[in-house]
Amino acid sequence: GAITGTFTGRHQGSVVSVSGNDFIVSYTGGDGNDVTLTALSKPEVWRHIHFGTIDNTGTAADTADADGDGIPNLIERACNLDPSASSTLPVSTTRTGTNLEYSYTRSVASVNAGDVFTVEWNDSLVPADWSSDGVTQEVQSDDGTVQVVKALVPAADTGHRFIRLKVTPAP
What does the pLDDT look like over 9-48, one tens digit per residue? Predict the structure, then answer.
């Protein structure tokens, strides 16, 4: 027969978590008496929460900057920032002997989803010259939601070095 009511009180298109896995609920499939649960990736859940869609397009795209703060959505998600509020990247840099300490905050959900965090350096800003040679990273703290990571970057002989955080999303 036709479905009446909702699955655990969830409306059409809402996200439900079952045993640590996230699904989107649909009551419109088949012949009108079907409930479907479609598994979602962690980035899709994040997009659904912040943009109401699971699609990597428009203002919800990884490369988009919905709040105009200069930080693309992929980095906002990876660093546990709110893509609807202007933010600054949670990083700091200090010199310690022959190294630069580059600390940043990253989302545990992003790490668990398989996103890759790479700290790179460059002395010239020539696009092909970014490198991660000699960089080591260590988690300093983890509260289950965010991790603070310290990367040691070799200091430059020239007296200046550019550093960036590169996030590669999981396939």
Answer: 788 888 888 888 888 888 787 776 778 888 999 899 999 9
* Calpha distance 69→67 (Å, rounded): 6
- State both tokens at 39: 């598994």
- Is residue 95 within 8 Å of 152, Cβ to Cβ? no
Half-sphere exposure of 88 (CA within 13 A, CB side): 3
DSSP annotation of 30: T
Q: What letter represents residue 133's amino acid?
A: D
Enclosing H/E stretch for 135: none
Distance CA 96, CA 86 (A): 31
Q: What global pTM score does this model have?
A: 0.83
Task: Write the single-letter amino acid at 13.
Answer: G
Here the tokens at position 6 are 């909702």
- For residues 98, 103, 136, 71, the Cα torsion angle rounded to the nearest 10 degrees is -120
Residue-wise DSSP of 38-97: EE--HHHHHHHHHHS---S-GGGSTT--TTSSS--HHHHHHTT--TTS-----EEEEEET
